[in-house]
Amino acid sequence: MTVSPPYDTPAPQRTLEPDAYRARVAPAIGDAAYLASLKKVTQYYVATAFIALFIGVLLGPLQAFNYAGINVYENPILKALLKSYYQGLSLHGVLNALVFTQFFISGWLLYLPTRDMGARINMKFAWGTYIMMTAGLLIAAVPLLLNKATLLYTFYPPMEGHWAFYVGATIMVAASLLVAGQVVLTWVGWKKQNPGQVTPLVTFMSVSLWMMWLVCSLGLVAEALLVLLPWVFGLRPGVDPLIAKTLFWWTGHAIVYFWLLPAYISWYAFLPKQAGGRIVSEPLARLTFVMFLLNSTPVGIHHQYADPNISNTWKMIHMFLTFLVAIPSLLTAFSIAGSLEDAARARGGRGLFGMLTHLPWKDPVVVGQILAMVSFIGGGAGGIITASFAFSPVIHNTAWIPGHFHITVGTAVTQTFMAIAFWLVPHLTGKRLVAPKVALASMWLWFIGMMFFAVGMHWEGLLGVPRRALISAVALPIYKEGYMHSQIPMALTGISGVILLLAGLSFFYVLFATLLSPRVDDAEAATPLPYSETISPAGRSLRGASPLVRATEPLLALWVVAFALVALMYGPVLMRLTQNASLVPGCNYYTTVQSEVGCNEQR
Length: 603
Ligand code: HEM
Ligand SMILES: [Cu+2]
What we know:
Blueprint: H1 32-66, H2 76-81, H3 85-117, H4 123-145, H5 163-193, H6 201-232, H7 241-275, E1 278-281, H8 282-295, H9 312-323, H10 326-346, H11 354-357, H12 364-386, H13 392-395, H14 400-429, H15 436-462, H16 477-484, H17 487-516, H18 523-526, E2 533-536, H19 547-552, H20 555-579, E3 587-588, E4 598-599
Parallel strand pairs: 1-2
Antiparallel strand pairs: 3-4
Helix pairs in contact: 1-3, 1-4, 1-14, 1-17, 3-4, 3-5, 3-6, 3-14, 4-5, 5-6, 6-7, 6-8, 6-20, 7-10, 7-14, 7-20, 8-10, 8-20, 12-14, 12-15, 14-15, 14-17, 15-17
């Protein structure tokens, strides 16, 4: 009989280099002009993202007041700016969920892997993608602002908007694919120059994420090129709404992970250092990202349980496979909690609550990210309900849905990006964060506001209050009575609008004041990239690496598997839909006021 070793026996050593445990230092870039240009293009992406968020966030409270039964859209000043609630909602959804995320991620995930590899990328190309993405944004913005693309952020046909909206949005997505291509190719070059080496963690996470985007965005690309553009340019007599919607959710489901995983990169790689702890396990972080690459893309049909002509079998298969996402999510939750515990212990925390009291609660960068994670616990749990075949009908198209995604993308992602900005902007510009106390307050206000919002909206949804509805203008007594039961959740939602307005104003004050302040520091020295030490590193040479590291390293092969899985899961469904395609004419809903609703109208 063998005797198991006592727990304090050191684990057997792998052949890892001794300094593999130490915090990484970004490879030096000697060419100052190149580094300045790289930082500048990143700054442009990030600043454009936050300008979009600023406008989008200012519109949010107007919607929240609607869900408190207060219709502010009749106010004459507002009426002059926005034709209807739906125009406000379309701008809010597009600017926050599509523009802010796309620009921030394109900047963040271009900069991180480039610095991590110490690579020299083609800066003309990098600036070209920024200019192209911004041109796409401007082209799409004109019809949006003129109320000619009031289509909500999902632009479901047969709602039909001005062609410029579709063209602009397509250019934006195409630009992001070019960023993805540039990063993936830079990594392929790095692999060639460093044979037998393990890809550094941040690069690994960034490249796998861009690969995931290159698989999942194909749905949207197909929707734009094969369905929407031929239709709005009159090359097709009509549109099949179901095909368009299925292609939309091919991208639309995985896009939420495209938004979320850039926040995970910060939580895994940088937050441990910022909190004073270490990364728990690099191989585990790699496994998580590979699982997202393979599992997030082929499972979008849980958004279509109520749609006809998709068999229940496929709906069930997509549901069960959707639930697999719980595995990398829980891996992440436990890893990050481990890093935070490590941080708390390093700072003298002992006992059950030592972890809670010994973290750097005065640092807005840390606090913002921790609160974002707390919010995501509720978001993840709600997501399991939302994706369930049995529960979905209860909350489908109710206020529950915006309640859910404001604590996921609206807080877990957005608040993490806000917290990142508190160090990233000084890192890129050499400026110092203005008013750190206001920054800290803005993080708490955002979190508290979103908690009020989430409780209010989930609750209203359970009571049957529909989403995307100007419920505050409903006059029919029968509806009024129905909504009477929702007075408490309505009040919570209204209060959340006020708190979130304060949160937004304080955050944007800090951000814009910082951006406009003078440059005072050598950015590289004053705010270096916050790489963390590692408890269980992946090592540098593949030969000495663990089986898990070796299995996750061939990202190109895993990428091919991801394509195959999508073909397997969507092929039969789309085949059946195209065989039974039925084209319908476009409709102009919401163009101005109710009176102008009509189908087959001229744009
Ligand atoms: C001040 C903070 C915010 C408030 C008060 C707010 C409020 C709301 C409300 C009440 C709705 C529901 C409207 C309806 O269904 O009729 C909504 C929709 C939406 N919000 Fe927010 N929001 C805020 C921030 C954000 C952020 C940060 C994001 C994403 C990054 C976001 C993304 C969206 C999206 C995608 C929709 C759905 C639009 C649609 O259904 O077409 N919001 N928001
Ligand atoms: Cu989904």
